[in-house]
Amino acid sequence: MARKLKSDKLLFLATLLLVGASVVMVYSASAALAMANYQQPPYYFLFKQMTWVVLGVSLLWVALRVDYRLLRQPVVIWTGLGVSIAALVVVFFGPPINGTRRWFAIGGIGVQPSELAKVAIIIYTASVLERRMDTINRVTHALVPIAVTTGVICSLILLEPDFGTAFTVLVIVGIMVFAAGLSYRYVFGLILAGVPILYGVLASAPYRVRRLLAFLDPEADPLGAGYQVLQSQMAVATGGLFGQGLMAGVQKLFYLPFPHTDFIYAVIAEETGLLGASVILLCFGMIIWRGLRITVSAPDRFGSFLALGFTMMIAIQALVNISVVLGLVPTKGIPLPFVSSGGSSLLVSLLAMGILLNVSQHASYDA
């Protein structure tokens, strides 16, 4: 008798809790901003976020119902890569937004192609590693195809410019390849070769240098480069144990930049305190734990690498975003998965969870 397919309930619950927190906190963080800066009703961003939530949950449901093994089909892989690369090129023909070209509009809806590129490169890397894992240390056979494809995508993202997303993609692919059994000598060699490249990328843009210096000493420029991190830390510090109460935060009122997107975790900490901020951390911890559990229990290599890639995608973005809010790493414009306002990130994160839940249905453990 065939085994009844069951998805990982804890993974699904943690995802729903984060999405629910998003709806509440986006409204709290953006109500005043919508009225003052956009001349819109206070629920302007709330309605937009709820629309994306409905679309994202629908996408999750579809991914949950479609067997993940269909993703290994060449037509899916190459279509995904082709569309992603084409979209990354299209953004350069649009007008800059806040000094960058990361979005383009379709029917008045903003699309961030770098988010789609993360999904495409994870699926591609998983498919290559499934077939060539046993020869992973034969550079030309396994590593070169992955390195070239990842290099093209990361280069296009860097040109937008979006160093944070490019770095995230590189780390995700690196972890997947390392998990496939890549020799330590290649790992150390790649790290040594990457140091001067990383230095060159950072030094080539003056604003990146300012961010780095502000990270080292934000109080040296409290109204300039250090402003974001100081206001963020102030929001976290004033939250205390139980917070100031929903809608009662002060830093979101035109002190904290981007309170509903990049710095929404600071608003959560201020209004719900250490208790609420810890619940968010526990949800991400649950997703990472269950994702890694699915990785080791997947019925095949492709499912295992898919689960690892999407788990790392969520984990790295959450770690970087929260670390920026707490002042542990230099400021980067990476949203908090499931929680930050924004359609592209939410759709891709929920798509990733749908695929991960689909893999869990076939995993050899009781979810």
Overview of the molecule:
- By secondary structure, the protein is mostly helical.
- The protein folds into two domains: 20-65 and 228-367, no CATH class; 74-204.
- The chain is 68% helix and 2% strand.
- A two-stranded antiparallel sheet has the order 1-2.
- Helix 3 (74-90) packs antiparallel against helix 4, helix 6 (163-179) packs across helix 11 and helix 11 runs antiparallel to helix 12 (343-362).
- The radius of gyration is 21 Å and the shape is globular.
Topology, pairings included?
Blueprint: H1 9-38, H2 44-65, H3 74-90, E1 104-106, E2 109-111, H4 113-132, H5 139-158, H6 163-179, H7 184-204, H8 206-216, H9 227-239, H10 264-297, H11 301-326, H12 343-362
Helix pairs in contact: 1-2, 1-10, 2-12, 3-4, 3-5, 4-5, 4-6, 4-11, 4-12, 5-6, 6-11, 9-10, 10-11, 11-12
Care to give the gist of this entry?
The chain is mainly α and 367 residues long. 68% of the residues lie in helices and 2% in strands.
